[in-house]
Amino acid sequence: MAGALPDGARGVRPDVTRTPSETADRSVATILLLQTSGASGSSIAMILQVVLIVGIFYFLLIRPQRQQAKQHREMVAALKRGDRVATLGGLVGEIVALNDDVVTLKTGEARVVVERNKVARRMNEGPATAEK
Length: 132
Description:
The chain is of the alpha+beta class. The chain has helices spanning 20-36, 40-77, 127-130, and strands spanning 84-87, 92-98, 102-107, 110-115, 119-122. 45% of the residues lie in helices and 20% in strands. β3 (102-107) and β4 form a beta hairpin. The protein is elongated and about 85 Å long.
């Protein structure tokens, strides 16, 4: 028998060998071809999901953080001498001097120089609330 296979051979040609990555590439390509054959509706749904996730992130995280940063910039720009403030480090004091980028605070008997953008909040709105 000229075309008979030897014992143990199951129709695989011995001169063709495939690496596992080549086999995986072929199976991934086959899966992609099968998915794209009728998936025009699902691709629109996937795009809508991505847009929805980006929108949620924008409205729940990015926008509020920008608004808070804007309020902080406005508060720091409006600081004036005599304001009672708290710093990010927890120091509480009264502003005795202002420069472009630093603030001098009087806290107790000490004077401390702090970066202007490290002022976290204003403790009062000026001398009017100190009289109460």
